[in-house]
Specification:
The protein is an alpha+beta fold. The protein has nine helices and eight strands. The chain has two domains: about 5-75, Winged helix-like DNA-binding domain superfamily/Winged helix DNA-binding domain (Arc Repressor Mutant, subunit A, Orthogonal Bundle); about 80-250, Beta-Lactamase (2-Layer Sandwich). It has helices at about 5-20, 25-35, 40-50, 70-80, 80-95, 140-145, 150-160, 175-185, 230-250, and strands spanning about 55, 65, 100-105, 110-115, 130-135, 190, 200-205, 215-220. The protein has a six-stranded antiparallel sheet, with helices on both faces. It has a two-stranded antiparallel ribbon with strand order 1-2. Strand 1 and strand 2 form a beta hairpin. It is elongated.
């Protein structure tokens, strides 16, 4: 049983009501809304004003909420660690599909694996935390590049050693731009044995509270198990959990 401090509970009720009335409210109106005596409400408002959560208009005498709660929320969001936030979701994604899940961030023209949730399969992926791979030929990398500006994409392409790692690796710039266009439309990227033969990956981007790409997650598995006919169903789950992580980081859809 949680102990509720009455005065705090009442003060929070005032903040909630004021947040719904941006033009401000008078003392009598607030008192009526939360069913408290005006003298009690007046004392609570005085405390909220002294702590900069509420302000009183000197002309109308109406009370208005300030942006302090927003500022506190932003501080919390800004210090969130994508690795910590994502853990329950990457584990849930692994359990959903029983394939290895990776969490990556970008470092210049590469992605870096910062977490890996192993699946219970006999054939396992050789990836390791800390490993680097190019942006242009990985599902996670392509999913992030699809959300960059044309200038950023071109700069990455120009400064990357583009190699034909497998027969499926896209090394033509115009073809790559078409691939990114398709990724934007679908909301996910596929590495169809482009980085390593025999391995198929499906990735989706993670966004932060500023709407910027913070990282990406993917599922990876042998192409004999992650078959073409499973891609759309798997992608639906990957996108779902990438979206949940993004929301946790403060991203507004």
């Amino acid at each position: 049983m949680i102990d509720v401090v009455q005065s705090v509970d009442r003060a929070l009720s005032i903040l909630e009501i004021l947040s719904e009335n941006v033009s401000g409210m008078g003392l009598t109106e607030i008192s009526s809304k939360i069913n408290l005596h005006k003298s009690t409400v007046h004392r609570l408002l005085g405390t909220l004003i002294s702590n900069n959560f509420v302000t009183q208009d000197s002309v109308t005498n109406k009370y208005k909420i300030t942006i302090k709660l927003y500022e506190l929320g932003v501080k919390k969001i800004a210090t969130m660690d994508i690795l910590e936030v994502s853990k329950p979701y990457t584990k849930a994604l692994m359990k959903s599909l029983n394939e290895v899940v990776h969490l990556v961030i970008r470092d210049k023209n590469d992605i870096i694996y910062i977490d890996k949730v192993e699946a219970d399969n006999t054939i396992r992926m050789a990836s390791t935390i800390g490993r680097r791979s190019p942006l242009y030929c990985t599902s996670v990398g392509k999913s992030m590049m699809a959300n960059m500006t044309n200038e950023e994409i071109k700069q990455i392409w120009k400064t990357t050693n583009i190699q034909k790692l497998t027969g499926n690796t896209i090394t033509d710039y115009d073809m790559f731009l078409k691939e990114l266009k398709l990724i934007r439309e679908k909301g996910y990227a596929e590495d169809d044995e482009e980085n390593e033969m025999g391995v198929r990956c499906i990735g989706a981007p993670i966004f932060n509270h500023k709407g910027e790409v913070e990282g990406a997650i993917s599922i990876s598995g042998p192409s004999i198990r992650v078959t073409k006919d499973k891609v759309e169903a798997f992608a639906k789950e990957v996108k779902k959990y990438a979206r949940l992580i993004s929301i946790e980081l403060g991203y507004e859809l």
